[in-house]
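Why show two proteins at once? Because comparison is the fastest way to build intuition. When a single record is shown, students tend to memorize it. When two are placed side by side, the eye starts asking what differs. So, the first record is below.
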Amino acid sequence: MKKVLLGLAVLASLAAVHAQATQFWNDTMQSYPDGCITTNTTVWFAHPPGSLTANDMLIVTSNYTSGAALDGKRLRVNGLNNEYAMRLFDPVNTNSVYGGSVYASFIVNASFVPSAGKGTYFANFNGVYPSSPPDGTSATNGFQFSGRVFEIGNTNAWPYTTTAPLTYRFGVANALGDPASATPGPQLYVPIDLIKGVDYQVVLKYDIDNAVAYLGVNPAADSITANSNWSGPTSDTGAITNGLAGLLFRQRTGGGTVDIRDVVVGDTFADVMTYSAATSPVLVATNYQTVTNYAGNPALLEVFATSFGGGTLNYKWYQISGGTTNPVGGNSQTYLKSSLAGSDTGNYFCAVTNSGGQGALSGTNFFISVNAAPTPPGFTTKPAVTVTSGTGSTLTLSCVAFGTGPLSYQWAFNSNPLTDGAPVTGNPGDVSLVAGSQTPALTVSGLTTNETGNFTVTVTSGGGVSPNTTNATTAVTVLLPTAVTIAYLRSLENANWQAGDTTSLFIVSNAVVTTYANTTSGTTSSYYIQDATGGINLFVTGDNTFRPKMGDIVAACGSLASFNNGLELAINAANSYQYYVVTGNTNLLPAPVVFSLDLTNNAGLMETNLEGRICMLTNVAFTVAQPASLTANYNTYVTNNSPNSVPFNVFWPAGQDPDMQNRTLTTNFAYTITGVLSQFKSGTTYGAGGYELIVTRIGDIQTNPPPAVTDLTAKLSGQNVVLNWTAVPYTIDTRGAYSYTVLAATNVKGPYLPLASLAFNTTNGTYTVTNALQGTRQFYRISSP
């Protein structure tokens, strides 16, 4: 069918700039060169706790093609990167605000939209830390983030499956609740669907006296209850602070990517609102959408308009059919037909006006096509034939069906229909929970072995066709937790060195805690553990009391996960099938692996043999000026003269680690640095640029020269020579161990060539030269490090 097109009429004028009264500052982002924000300006800086670099938060030049977005300089907050950038309210005096409300606004454009239901916060106010008047530095310290703004992908909920792709909403939380949290709190959303590539003005208001946040999208006034462009107040209290110090942008894995310009901060709405509804144009970004479906099924059209300061927009939908234009829809961003008929075939458009009388028309190539021929139900996509999952995990099965509607769905287990909110079976010990039992997507949480069996979906047509049903079956096997070694868990990494099997539960026993303190914050625990085969991060969510000691022996049951490319045994304290317990204690830590910087070029070796283990760097120089304060989480790079070596990141989690707090690093050289080998780069990258050594005790930075080896002995053992000497061990009580290099030569004067570099967890330094008596006579030396 030919689609009739009507020209786009847009009533537009230049936006008027509102007079400012007590505005703190206004940054258009246009004056900076492309590149790192913290090297372009002295007013934006890396938020200290962090790597102190924010080197992946960039100023970019946008090239948007949408008529609703403007080109120019933007601050890109990328959900594939990490780090923070903050600007104080008063960068000269670091004065903070301790009462009333603080406002911030910025123009934001989503250049990447998270998947449905996903997302994490990218902007917030930074609280004064500690919660007392600033002492000159406290305004930039800590993680008391308030008024968290997040981007979350829209769900394509059945039965209205024609939702436009790449849509999202903005939400707000106080200090909890963003959807990426392991234990998300209440989430409040501005009730407007947004789309990638369109500029919107976001206004964040934080009421300090009541510790609540509000969020507006293109609001025309500070009328929270009357204006549907607002959401709030937040319903979680979070980490209440009595003062705010600055505005912060945040990058974290799992969020979307937004490009930001025209950032304004003040203490009134008028300070940050630079547009007027009467003079701001309405721009319609999406001028087409096509829906094809069978009669009896639903269809959804949606228009995406924006008007800075335009307030609540008014919508009117029209259908063009047979040369006639007729109004068909009320005041809604969407046009919904719950049950299609042949007469719904045609072109559609929408007229949009803002609260100031400005308006625009969408294009008329919105189109609905209805297949009115009776068609029995069938599957476009069937659920998997077989699925294996672990006890306590969540099962998700889905299908896509077609045919004359309305289509209905019913899931069953072993031929017994399932009910939402009930367990799969009535068997003792079955704590599973069913959701979506009458939709195309079934979810069963809290799996037990009761759920081993056949899940069947039956699709029924209500359109009087024959046959009127079809079905598909999935055989599900639920496995009990499996006792494994850490080396086995590492063997499950995929080709990108990410966690492979993330659903099964695994039990690790007799593993030693190798970090001195928790390396994360909040209601989580992050400790590295190591058994005889390898090391891994043990990450517990939902328990701020689990604080094992270095040398504790633990047993844990959880699932595999990846964070910043590092492998984790992840445990949710609320999951009754997962556990973590201290079973004993030892003073015998694993001996460190002497680590050469050029090994980062061998990803396979790093991922399977070294990551997660205690490792030791030797003879390294720091690349930053000294002295360096370790009062907050601190990162620096070290390097040495090893062939093919790269600058290597060393991280001290001083924000959580009492042994590192209030310490100062006074030298540029260390004989040895001992810690756990990990990663810090988020996203899908890994390798030399992403590995780091986590140091959790100040004594593990050894800046004193090693003691001389004076008691080297050699004994025969068959054809072997066994060397023994007294070593400085790496233990809980003895910090700052050294490495020992075994050298051999055929002449007492040399040259001596290295055979091995070793570190020890006892004073018994030893090395066996295999088949030493079968070759030329050798002379041996021990050097350190």
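Second record. Ask yourself what differs from the first in the token line.
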Amino acid sequence: MLSPKLKQKVSNLWDMFWSGGMTNPLTSIEQITYLIFLKRLEEFDAERISEKKYSLYGRRPHCELDHHSKDKIGIDQSLPPDADPADYEKCQGHGTCRWSYLRRLSTTDDPETGRKITPYDHMNGYVFPWLRVLHNTLDSLSNGSNGTGVLDAPMEDAFFQFPKDKTTLFQNAIEMIDDLFNDISHASASDLMGDIFEYLLSEIDTSGKNGQFRTPRHIIRFLIELAQPEAGQRLIDPTAGTAGFLINTIQYLKKEFTSEENYLLEWDGTPHRTIGDKLPERLWNAALKGENFVGYDNDRTMVRIGWMNMILHGIENPHIVLRDTLGRSLSREESGSYNRVLANPPYTGTIDKNDLYLDIGRFPKNPRKVKEAITYKTELLFTWLILDLLVPGGRAAMIVPEGVLFGSTGAHKELRRQLLFDHNLQGVISLPAGVFNPYTGVKTSILVFEKGGDVTAKGQPPRTESVWFYDVTSDGYTPGAKREPDYTQNDLWDALYKWNEKIVDNTDYYQPDLYDARWRLVDEKLLEIFPERRDLRGLVGQELGIDELFGFPVPTDPKIIEQQVVEEQEPRIAMVYGRRLASTETRLAKEKHTQKIAYDAFDQDLKRLEQLFREAIDKLLENKKQFKTNPTFGRDRLQPLLETARNYSHENLQERAVQAASNAGLFARDLPLVPELDWAEEVYLIVREFAKLDGYDIKLRTLEVKKQEKPLNETKSWSAPVRVLLRNDEWSSADGRIEGSHDSYGNVRPAYLADPQLYEDEQNNIIKKEFLDPNCIEANDYNLSSGRYKPFKPTTVVYDPPAKLIRELQDLEAQIMTRLGNLLEMVEGRE
């Protein structure tokens, strides 16, 4: 999470692009991301070099790129031990692609050619050509492979799109990005840069500047918790977009391997301080390999953004690739390759029949037209694709439009039949209609399933015995277009609590406790205000609570901390004002003065004191003008106290001046001595106490989820059996030796299941509806709408006696007749 201060800096950067004429939002975000990416790359490279790895800016074999005359400066010219020097002859490195060089970029003369090179020329001629082949560099240096070919080159069409005449805009952008990261340590740079990138994307969404569809992050985290990926497993999102599912899975894994006493959860589940201390670093490196987190998308821009996003989140060689996953570009080798699939595929679209890859059996064929697919609806095809990608026993969590659950076409029914019969459909979780506002109002649900093995044969029960349903009516946000947080309404925590045990027909409601905290970025400004806190220097770039930073002996509730500071400093402020007036009075008592001179002396000394406060406030406390989204807590709590002290001091100033003028010189010896204070120092120390209150408020949740005192009015979770065979006591086997479909324990006899008369479709193990309990899923065309199986809750209704209702009707009739009579008189003019 970004602090409001950093959010404001990012917003300022965004606004600068907008006002500078770069009004295409996706172009702007790409260009900002490229610059952030270049900034991170040099730091990333420094980390590589410290680990004795080869530099990203080093000499490249068979390099065909143009070179700047200063490319070799600061670049280690040594080659790998087994390298052929002839392969490196054309390359002495790419030093002018480093951020430290770009920071000083200006129009220069090329000493070799004599021509002028503008910043635009340099970025367009040297930096971006190098970026476009960076994937090859990363691929070769990581001893891994993302494949070869045009489709696997995520940056191949990355171009510098600043207007050629906007040199100042470019230089200001460089400066602002540098300023953005001035106070960030290398240790936290990866997470922070990733957070900045995510914030840029969310700002596009909330501002309405772009229609890019993004799955809300709290919904992504919910799906991940349902799928429960494990470290080292291979995971894929076949419609990855900006790689949100993959990045949040990495954060989930870090949380799972962090001791509970170390990490914190935001109210919506966002993890913080996930250090992965329970997993050794060498295992982390193996678990977080790029090839373990695979993302495909058919949009080049999304692939570029997703690839950079993964690198900014610390994945060295991410496998984010341009692929039409429903088409031929996804090879048959991908089938059965992944332990987990997480996805929110496109809704209600269709695919051209010529683009679909039918030859390898990934999608079922039309039973009546074997050369065609059973459907061309993307929401159905993606579900089959996900089943194909999973290894047997692998699990998927995906979002589908509700039509998938009850659609009546043959393809809809066949998909549901396969999920139930051949696989293990573990849960259907209905989401509220407003989850994807303001971009779509499509009602959606989450499917969670595990891939089965062989197709279930005749006589075998469906692999799914029963389906768990949960009806989410609130996800923690209001249902309107603005989607404001609603901390009191969040069924997701209850659903997750009940998920593992598949708790049903239970009105207990489970929620975490929420509590407020105030966090602050440890930066140079904080260290400047509190120079004695040398212990904070190693924490630069981290977000800590003000209770942690300053050791307030109270709960983390910022309101209680505020009250404590106010109670401690209010008498101190009153004392300073009182001492200031007493000091003036002592000075005036030494010689005679007029009343006006005495009044002016008191007034001027108070004004000087107030000026000292203003100067200290401007220096130490946050200002709303600078950070519009950030309440200035210290300033807001101090100002009323100063106003009260000032008003009190001025109330009787006239009388005090009269008294001072009349007593001047008469009783000077009798006045008590008032030691002079270092007024600036005293004021500074008071204001500094209020600086401890600055920061930003954050709503956190406890790790524990506990039963609430108030139960639900009705259950939110239930289950439905897939197949229930009606008892048939009249049935007997062909040889007459076995009678009755069920044994004495109520179990279905195997011989009964072997009877061909039972089946509507023996090949697909489909039983005739007349033999099924009408309440089971198989008897309802495999309908998976959660409401269809919701248990009926009888309610007692008290009705009025019939005689009372009849009398009320008679009274109503009389009133009507009277009013009709009055109306008739008016019409006939008799009134």
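One difference worth noting in the second protein: The longest helix spans residues 558-588.
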